[in-house]
């Protein structure tokens, strides 16, 4: 199952919201992300969160359309996006696209990135998509395939510690079983040299950010 989660960020560009959604996708809004979904012409199947940023008029409209709601208390340990992400994976989603995760508060944006390292996401393909950029996490033992064009920027950022055994194909500055150290900027602004590229990680976590030209 493929799920699309729409977060409550401040994305100015509506195009990713339309182009990333396929027929049959399960569309889930994280609380106020429902407002953004409607602005993009999308109808959520489910809204999840504490509903503190969902206007009553929007909720009434969604209820009339048959949308389901999964409400959580305001005093909780997880953000609405984490709740949505955990829920879709627990329901069987093996691929998740997250829209609207950037903009607004810096702490939320950073927390959103760190969600990719949740143990429950092991074996699940999760991507953040915004404008011409997308981000995904590669775990030890995994290979990520990128599709784009020569000249696209690709940045490789270790998360939570060093990334070991990093090997790349199709990038201008190739890596062969190398270590990228956590907190260092070595992996920023590599470039694709072909329509496809591959990034393999032996151990650790590596955030891959792909910016299309």
Protein model, in words:
The protein is of the alpha/beta class. It has two domains: 2-131, Rossmann fold (3-Layer(aba) Sandwich), CATH 3.40.50; 137-211, Thiamin pyrophosphokinase, catalytic domain (Rossmann fold, 3-Layer(aba) Sandwich). It contains five helices and 14 strands. The strands form two sheets. It has a ten-stranded mixed beta sheet. Strand 1 (2-6), helix 1 and strand 2 (26-30) form a beta-alpha-beta unit.
- Structurally, the number of domains stands at 2
Radius of gyration: 18 Å
**SSE series:** EHEHEHEHEHEEEEEEEEE
CATH 4th-level superfamily of the largest domain: Thiamin pyrophosphokinase, catalytic domain
Shape: elongated
Roughly what fraction of the amino acids lie in strands? 25-35%
How far apart are the first and last residues' alpha carbons, in Å? 30 Å
Summarize the structure.
The protein is of the alpha/beta class. It is 19% helix and 34% strand.
What labels describe this entry?
5 helices, elongated, 213 residues, Rossmann fold, alpha/beta, 10-stranded mixed sheet
Which secondary structure elements does this structure contain, and how are they paired or packed?
Elements (H helix, E strand, L loop, with lengths): L1 E5 L8 H5 L6 E5 L2 H7 L6 E4 L6 H9 L3 E4 L8 H11 L4 E5 L6 H9 L10 E6 L2 E7 L2 E6 L5 E6 L4 E7 L8 E3 L9 E2 L4 E6 L3 E7 L2
Parallel strand pairs: 1-2, 1-5, 2-3, 3-4, 5-6
Antiparallel strand pairs: 6-7, 7-14, 8-13, 9-12, 9-14, 10-11, 10-13
């Amino acid at each position: 199952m493929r799920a699309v989660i729409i977060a409550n960020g401040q994305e100015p560009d509506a195009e990713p919201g339309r182009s990333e959604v396929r027929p049959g996708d399960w569309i889930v809004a994280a609380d106020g992300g429902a407002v953004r979904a409607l602005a993009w012409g999308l109808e959520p199947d489910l809204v999840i969160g504490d509903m503190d940023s969902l206007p009553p008029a929007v909720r009434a409209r969604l209820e009339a359309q048959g949308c389901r709601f999964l409400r959580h208390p305001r005093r909780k340990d997880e953000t609405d996006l984490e709740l949505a992400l955990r829920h879709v994976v627990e329901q069987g989603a093996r691929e998740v696209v997250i829209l609207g995760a950037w903009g607004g508060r810096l702490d939320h944006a950073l927390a959103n990135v760190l969600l990719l390292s949740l143990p429950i996401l092991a074996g699940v393909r999760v991507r953040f998509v915004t404008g011409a950029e997308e981000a995904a996490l590669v775990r030890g033992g995994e290979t990520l395939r990128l599709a784009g064009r020569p000249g696209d920027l690709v940045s490789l950022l270790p998360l939570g510690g060093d990334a070991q055994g990093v090997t790349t194909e199709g990038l201008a500055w190739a890596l062969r079983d190398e270590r990228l150290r956590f907190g260092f900027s070595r992996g920023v602004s590599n470039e694709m040299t072909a329509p496809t590229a591959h990034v393999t990680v032996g151990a650790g976590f590596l955030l891959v950010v792909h910016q299309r030209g």
